[in-house]
Specification:
Elements: H1 2-9, E1 16-20, H2 23-35, E2 38-42, E3 52-59, E4 62-69, E5 78-86, H3 90-102, E6 107-116, E7 131-136
Parallel strand pairs: 1-2, 1-5, 5-6, 6-7
Antiparallel strand pairs: 3-4
Helix pairs in contact: 1-2
């Protein structure tokens, strides 16, 4: 799996791989290592140890929030956001909004997933954001 992602992103100048809690961490760390990039974590509230930025978002059954360290990304960095599954797109849309709101000079090269559940139409929430999935159902 890491080799497939590495082949896709090697040579694209990725500076940071952003993993979304929690299974995204499993993919972010080895991929970042393979690309010679850093790792940034996006987590549920109150789990990161330093000052954070927060983004609240709607779920089908309520609301949730995600946080990122305030010093996680630098201007002009190219980042790759990765998670395990693209379902309804809400978590990734919130992550993209979190990053673009607080780090406007960062470029999200692509959002990558191991698997996409196409029948849930998650890509519709991610307009304008390049998306890649290894497996599509």
């Amino acid at each position: 799996m890491v080799e497939a992602f590495k082949a896709r992103y090697q040579g694209k100048g990725i500076d940071q791989v952003v993993g979304i809690e929690a299974r995204g961490f499993v993919f972010a760390a080895p991929l970042a290592y393979a690309l010679g990039a850093g790792v940034t974590l996006v987590r549920k509230p109150d789990k990161l140890p330093h000052k954070t930025y927060k983004q609240t978002y709607a779920l089908e059954y309520g609301t949730d929030a995600l946080e990122i360290h305030q010093d996680a990304l630098k201007p002009d960095q190219k980042i790759l956001v990765i998670d395990d599954v693209l379902a309804t797109g809400g978590t990734l849309a919130a992550t993209a909004l979190l990053i673009s709101s607080y780090f406007p000079k960062v470029e999200i090269v692509e959002a990558a997933f191991l698997m996409e559940l196409g029948f849930l139409n998650g890509r519709q929430k991610l307009e304008g954001l390049p998306v890649f999935s290894l497996i599509q159902y």
